[in-house]
Automatic annotation (TrEMBL):
PANTHER family: XANTHINE/URACIL PERMEASE C887.17-RELATED, XANTHINE_URACIL PERMEASE C887.17-RELATED. It is found in: Cell membrane. It comes from Candidatus Moanibacter tarae. The chain crosses the membrane at residues 20-37, 49-68, 74-93, 100-121, 133-155, 167-185, 191-209, 221-242, 248-270, 329-348, 383-407, 419-436. This is Adenine permease AdeQ. Coiled coil: none annotated. InterPro entries: Azg-like (IPR045018), Azg-like_bact_archaea (IPR026033), NCS2 (IPR006043). The lineage of its organism: Bacteria, Pseudomonadati, Verrucomicrobiota, Opitutia, Puniceicoccales.
Amino acid sequence: MLERLFHLTANGTNPRREIIAGLTTFAAMSYILAINPDILSAAGMGKEGLVTVTALAAGIGTLLMALFTNYPIALAPGMGLNAYFAFTVCGAAGIPWKGALAMVFWNGIIFLLLSITGLRTKIAESVPPALKIGVQCGIGLFIAFIGLRNGGIIVKDNVTFVRLGELSNPSTLLVLTGIIVTFALVHKKVLGGIIISIFLVTMIGFEIPKGEGMVTVAPDSIWGLPSGIGETFFALDILYPITHLSEAWKVVIALLFVDLFDTIGTLIGVSRQAGLVDAQDRLPKMGRALTSDACATIVGACLGTSTTTSYIESAAGVQAGGRTGMTSITIASCFFLALFFGPIIVIIPPEATAPALVMVGVLMMQGVKNLKFDDLTSLAPAVVTMMIMPLAFSISDGLAIGFIVYFGTMLLVGKWRKVSLLTAALAILFFFFYVLNL
């Protein structure tokens, strides 16, 4: 039966190798079970229910990828987009989380239509590589900044806007120590280094004072039945983006493009490593993979989480020998099993997830090496994009300014013919919206 479903022999693998690969990927990305609830709870949703939602969204999304494509690729709520959802869309913009979930839902619907029609890949190819890199690195800085802020290492200042926190504070010192340990574990390529760091900081937190209590609060039980999902299950205000179009459209565009770049980059990168691409470096089932990703986002929004997307950590499982959907089935099973350990996951404090956020941000910055430093028409817009995102505390604002600066620069230096029609149209649209307030 396994042979018929996953074609193990044809892919040069076996059940044991696939299971080990699945466990490897889960260990590499399981940190999302702690981080996603911690981030999204800032939008006003209950943390306990978000643990259930995160595990379900990851499990269902990964299962869809396994059944539709037979690829060893895992999905879960995406880093960066969850922070954008909680801190920018719901926080700074004041949009209710039910309305924000509806934006994620419609983003998934648009994504699905683009995937079915084949336009999704063409759109991604029409955006200049420099802007893609700028968006990726900008999100990395955005995530790292949130980690430093949540950990108390960076705090608000009325004169200089931000300043260094009190490192003599035991909880802040714990975060700094956690960052250093996380860097060391990941550098040494320790399997599950990020989740190990989260575990260590959480355990030490039982002994570190914070306010009138401790950093980590003891759980009532070790395991329990999944709970709390009733608050967010199909709670999205599906008409909100339509009735509030003026504030919703730029959010949907940001979600669309970030997910677009992230998903295609992950699919190609992981599939290339697994030897799944053809002689033209194309993924045979790209359409199915993109459709699976879009469906996962739609399902995730209905459950109550931000955009669900393909994870680059899938490469860890591929490196361990994963080649088929059986790897993804194993990963999905682990996420479904995690549903019963909510009482433990929910006590993980921000001090434990902050180092993980910084680490993920650093890893996302690695794309900067692919920028053309001798070409200012590419370098400058990318750098502006990655600076605006953390400083304006908005992925959509960084994306918009990046397009405007890129098109404006190419126009003035006489290279406007090299700009794709889509890039020019978006730059003009963003210019009218941001500069002329139309």
